[in-house]
Amino acid sequence: MGVDDVKPLLDRFVADVGRVLPLVALWAHGSLALGDFQPGRSDFDLVALIGAEITASQRQELRRMHELLLQQMPLADKVHCAYVVRSELADVGLSHLTWAHGELLDRVLSPVSRRELHRGGLSLIGPAAAAVVPELTDKELADYILGDLRDFWYPATAKPELWLRDIWVDLGLLTLARARVTLRDGRLITKREALEVLAGLGAPADVLRDVYLRRYETGPQLSEHWRYRRGFLARTYVRAGIEQVLALPDA
């Protein structure tokens, strides 16, 4: 499934946003742009470029728009969109209004997302992202990735309860593999490619199969024993991998 298969949702989204905000461009990054989109499982990672600052009333109207979309359009729960004012696009540290997980938040547009937009962004309307989004240096991207591993993912590996959930097992392993490839050669890879990388790096085969089946086929029901075992295997592998990447003393 690609863009054509989700065109009704994207067309509706473009029309709705355009009625609320001065929409300049809409870009997709992540799996939809990179060819690894899985319907019902993958998120729609979108960035809307806006021509003027968003007012308080527009913010409320935007919230209502998203809530109505959730009620009326299949897969709308997977829509994540950052609303970036064009004059603020160059400021990497600035937070932008973002709809994610059913609520409006203020978040930065991460360097990884910016690199995805610049190198492989899909323009749904307006100018191509590569013509508008400032290019990041490899050092800026690497510093962000190392900080994310050090400050977010490494502390998370000390919390076993988190790793009982599918999302932590999946993203922990995939983030580590994608980080290693990007830090090595600056290349961005899909989640499917990350599974292949993990297989070559000695990640637990049973856990990789579990992730693959849930992402690309119909995953089996998990026993309580396997859920705890899977969490332990994933967490300890990711922890050791981060220690190696960061060259921590315990590695």
Q: How would you explain this protein's 3D organization?
A:
By secondary structure, the chain is α+β, with helices and mostly antiparallel strands. It is 51% helix and 15% strand. The chain has two domains: 3-131, Beta Polymerase, domain 2, CATH 3.30.460.10; 138-246. Strand 2, helix 3 (56-72) and strand 3 (79-85) form a beta-alpha-beta unit.
Count all strands and give the number. 6
- Low-pLDDT runs of 5+ residues are none
Sheet-strand content, in percent, reads: 5-15%
End-to-end C-alpha gap: 41 Å
CATH fold descriptor of the largest domain: Beta Polymerase, domain 2
Question: Secondary-structure blueprint of this entry?
Answer:
Layout: H1 7-20, E1 23-29, H2 31-34, E2 44-50, H3 56-72, E3 79-85, E4 95-100, E5 103-108, H4 111-120, E6 122-125, H5 138-156, H6 166-185, H7 191-200, H8 205-216, H9 224-246
Parallel strand pairs: 2-3
Antiparallel strand pairs: 1-2, 1-6, 3-4, 4-5
Helix pairs in contact: 1-3, 5-6, 5-9, 6-7, 6-9, 7-8
